[in-house]
Amino acid sequence: MPKTLKEMRIEASELAEEARPEEIDFLLAERLGMTPSEYQLKQDRELTDDEVKQVRKDVKKLAKGVSPQYILGYAWFLGYRLKVARGVLIPRFETEELVEWALEYLKSGSTVLDLGTGSGNITVALAKEAASKGISDLHLYASDVKDAPLRISEENFLDYQLNVTTRKANVLLGLGKFDLIISNPPYIKPGEKNLMDQNVLANEPEEALFGGEDGLAFYRKFAKEVRDHLNPGGRFFMEFGFSEEDELKALFAEELPDFKMEFRRDMAGKPRMLFGEWQK
């Protein structure tokens, strides 16, 4: 007898009882090619035998703690579908706000670096959104400390027909000069592990998550190196952890006194993003 979506949803929650309901819903909706509204409105839809087999296969992986995006092989970011795989950070919705902020300052002909690119989500969204606003002739660069994310990012750049130069680099070492640098760097403190989703800890690369004992290792290196990698009047945009605003204000005031700095909260009201502009 055919299974309805509602029945499959219940079965999935029983098979993967540790998974959050929203993870199950996301996985089922994506695998069945349904929008969130269709998913909610069509709970009586009957699934084919092949669909039931696929969903059960997916849910078994979910029950083992594999993130839904890794099961599907892709994630969504600012409306763009991007390939992801183990060893590559899953794009975060909060980072969409960082991209939108940077877009306010982006100009045609700019040289842009996505520092710690991961899946390449920031570069893809920034480039495509810029094009839709008539911002053109961007010179795009993306770097990462590991080979795996660079390979995935290159696939995503190819999918979106973007000409991006990729480089393997630790922070800014060995890179050129840019008009704009944007980054979602590692900033989590090891002591915050107990606050994190277990799926994240089990699946996602530690080097993309943890920023040393106090979460600020990346920012210290960046602050010492950035003048050598920005053109005069250049800007940078970065994410940071919700508890790090005061420490970062002090760090950048000491290391970059000739930079105009601004800090912003995200839509949830948490300190999340910073902007620096070289007054040269």
Automatic annotation (TrEMBL):
Domain of life: Bacteria
GO biological process: methylation
Catalytic activity from the UniProt record: L-glutaminyl-[peptide chain release factor] + S-adenosyl-L-methionine = N(5)-methyl-L-glutaminyl-[peptide chain release factor] + S-adenosyl-L-homocysteine + H(+)
Keywords: Methyltransferase, S-adenosyl-L-methionine, Transferase
Domain Methyltransferase small: 109-195
Signal sequence segment: none
Annotated Release factor glutamine methyltransferase N-terminal domain residues: 19-73
Residues given in the record as S-adenosyl-L-methionine binding sites: G116, T117, G118, S119, G120, D144, N184
EC number: 2.1.1.297
A GO molecular-function descriptor: methyltransferase activity
Binding positions (substrate): N184, P185, P186, Y187
Keyword presence, S-adenosyl-L-methionine: yes
Keyword Transferase set for record: yes
Similarity-based family: Belongs to the protein N5-glutamine methyltransferase family. PrmC subfamily.
Function: Methylates the class 1 translation termination release factors RF1/PrfA and RF2/PrfB on the glutamine residue of the universally conserved GGQ motif.
Protein's UniProt name: Release factor glutamine methyltransferase
Species assigned in the record: Lactobacillus nasalidis
